[in-house]
């Protein structure tokens, strides 16, 4: 059996986040920023929303059905960006994308989300890991 | 049936360090060497453009191409060879119907009847048609076990229904629909009957005359044939009145500056250089299947289902969609394992060399109807074996273990 | 260029007891073993459905399929890979344009401008569009030597012209059209420029950005690739606004009961399971051509034309259509021999193993314009040789003899 | 050289008919029966027209560009059917079609047209030989 390969992907932390995701709750409809994104590979849908005060994220949450990878990734991301400003978030998105593509990046800034680096060995799952980050990226690139 | 796995060279390889086990034939089937050889033979010996050539090579290519049409005719028991049109696949076949027959015959206020278990390719073309002409698209409900609710066909159909288009075999639920019964109802109301045969043609005897369908669509690549070739069967009388969807090349008779006349069916519908090698190799795939015999194919697949379904059900936490008894279930089996997302389960299986699909299987309305987001799907074909099923069940149990043990 | 004939297994055979001499590459080209191997390799090792799979095999198939898109992008110098759509061939590419971009952008009273030298596939789709929306289809005249009359482009184009669609290289006259010049004129009048590259892409460097075409269509089977695969290049901005011609499968994002949203370009345009193996093998054909180098291909073919054209002209009774000097003539040469109908001449050549085409070459308006019923056509490619030309000329003279001697 | 193969097709008689076709003249527009047929293989067009008196063909002619085979065949056919009635012509059409397909047939009734039997060895040219006969067949099957 080669299920130990899976350990590269499904680290303890990831599964913990997936099973008990942080900032995971339905949309209210009153958030300042909101986007829905689809993973075309599997059809999973994610909703992401946050409010900003003085260019800083005050609260953020996500919702939707997804695999362990996408849920954990969204969960870690939301943890990370609370209190961050637009520029900082854009940098994080950039770092994460690089890491997922297997390029050199400042992984330390990504905190817990570093464990998702294992996804580079599972090319079919990269989209799962980056889904929430793409959602954030798109929200940030639309001027409010 | 004797084991034929060794006829399929692709199956003799390792994936992620494990022997390949291919359980995704509903997406596309693997090809026997016999079909691959047919492609090689065509390109190494007979390649030329068809129909217009007046030399030996072109005559050979044309003869082989038209022989492939004869083979398809026999395979689906069409009355005439002219009723067989070559397309790229099921999706193109259905789109042609919507954009030609549909646009000509469906008017504002008319109705098109499909079901909740359709593949996107048998939904979206009809949505587009309905939007274009102002018609209504209606959905037939399913019974609790995932079979089509025939009573609901009778409830939903009206005199305004012009087209009924239903999948012959579901690509998710493992259900075979009683097309003959539905066709009878459709015709009683003056509607035409279209069957999506993408998941049936590879696996059972097809008799378009007995089912009395007006159109029947299927794909070569799901029945041992190459990619890029498929079929649209249509009743001769209807085809004779139907406009082609594409224009140019051999389908033309005479071109004036402002207008043109076209060849008779089926050539009228095959614009441009067709997928000649593809059609010929589909013919070879039909030869291969016919040699086994479609009754034998069906029987063998049923034996695989009778093997795997009970074993799957015995694993706690497994939910199977569609009929629960194997006699009613085709070789397409969609399921979920509690606590492990379909996507994660598919990746784990892939690590063991077992290739399955996970997701919505291009059937989002069905997923919503069943109130699920995604499923894992295994789909079996003649090259799969009982040994493979045992290995699959074993690995599935270990994966369940893995996710439970590590992350409970 | 070194002789590459032995790369093409089909050429090593006898036809009617004579060594095969294939002079019909404008209809379809032969395939090098390298391209055939690519098909075999795909089916023996990597076959799976693309895009939706989350397992190793499917990832490999998807990667190869998308790499083929990259190869096409490079080959035609497109700015973005997303500008390359896979189709069945030139005919489908042009039909898609007429039925989507055309229907959306051409209104009653508008004009579509083509030329008298177009292939039916670049005529009839526009006739159909004109009839459907009430537009006018206008034809650009030719000069006496068969070249396009550029002054007439300027005469015929108006502010109502929405589409100019011209063949890049003629499949009869051996003429190459100055697409860049015509595109400039089209854009000055606010029209889009479409080039039919069926006869140019196999034979020369293509730079869609330099020509500034909005769309460019070509077929894989005419450029060493398999049947059933072709390309539609489109400028990104236009594609982004264009509707797909077919619906279903991987082109879909989200499906509700009554409507659906679609993927971004190019996937939005590739409904259903595409011709995966075909696209990959087209990529292999591009590899093969690129290794030789398109400049070298062009040069070599020019040397063949410079050889055959004067020799043909020396035979009394031969009329050559299109430019009379070889520098201006591509490897497509249409001609007639006085007193012998094209059809009879082609049969006689076939008896000698020499495969040529005879007829109207799917260009009936051109035939009428030239006031001829049919021509013989030879069309050369990289695997043809100077020795073959000598043999062809010799046989031609004997056939002339034969018909004169026997039946004068 | 295997041009002698050609002798199977291009007999002396055929070439004579092709070069000096009988009943070859443009349409008048006043004929009782008229049809235009295309050979889809090569795009050749043939016009065929005749008058009938008391169910018998009085005069017949054809016109159009065509290869030697199609011209000779039309020429021989027109020779043959003058004075024939509908039934007789239908029988001739049937005999000729059979011969062209290589099936047993009463070739004697076909007179000169028998020489066209050589076309069976040239499958790509069968349509040329049968074009005029198909035209006649279609004219006869349309009741006047
Ligand atoms: C039921 C059904 N219909 C249609 C299709 C579309 O077939 P293709 O992609 O070959 O056009 C499929 C294949 O996924 C299918 O399963
Ligand atoms: C100039 C031209 N355009 C279009 C076509 C049609 O190409 P295809 O048959 O591959 O669709 C051809 C091929 O015959 C051609 O020569």
Q: H/E element string of chain B?
A: EEEHHEHEHEHEHEHEEHEEHHEEHEEHEH
Q: For the residues shown, what is the average pLDDT of chain A?
A: 88
State the helicity of chain B in percent bands. 40-55%
Residue-averaged pLDDT of chain B: 95
Assembly annotation: heterotetramer
- Largest sheet geometry of chain B: 7 strands, mixed
Bound molecule kinds, no repeats: pyridoxal-5'-phosphate
Count structural domains of chain B: 2
N-C termini distance of chain B: 43 Å
What letter string, H or E per element, gives the SSE order of chain A? HEEEHHH
Report on this structure.
With 144 residues, chain A is of the alpha+beta class. Chain A has helices at 12-19, 68-81, 86-101, 126-141, and strands at residues 33-38, 45-53, 56-63. Chain A has a single domain (3-140), classed as Sufe protein. Chain: A (Alpha-Beta Complex). Chain A is built from four helices and three strands, in the order H-E-E-E-H-H-H. In chain A, strands 1-2-3 form a three-stranded antiparallel β-sheet, covered by helices on one side. In chain A, a hairpin with a 2-residue loop joins strand 2 (45-53) and strand 3. The longest helix of chain A is centred in the middle third of the chain and has 16 residues, at 86-101. The termini of chain A are far apart. In chain A, 40% of the residues are buried. Chain B is of the alpha/beta class and 408 residues long. Chain B has 13 helices and 17 strands. Chain B has a seven-stranded mixed β-sheet, sandwiched between helices. In chain B, strands 13-14-17-16 form a four-stranded antiparallel β-sheet, covered by helices on one side. In chain B, helix 6 links the parallel strand 7 and strand 8. The longest helix of chain B is centred in the last third of the chain and has 22 residues, at 386-407. The radius of gyration of chain B is 22 Å and the shape is globular. The C-D interface holds C 16-18, 340-344, 347-348, 350-352, 358-360, 364, 367, 373-374, 395, 398-399, 402-403, 406-407 and D 1-3, 5-6, 9-10, 12, 15-16, 19, 41-45, 65-70, 122, 124-125, 128. One pyridoxal-5'-phosphate (PLP) sits between chains C (26, 89-91, 119, 121-122, 167, 171, 196, 198-199, 219, 362) and B (249, 272-273).
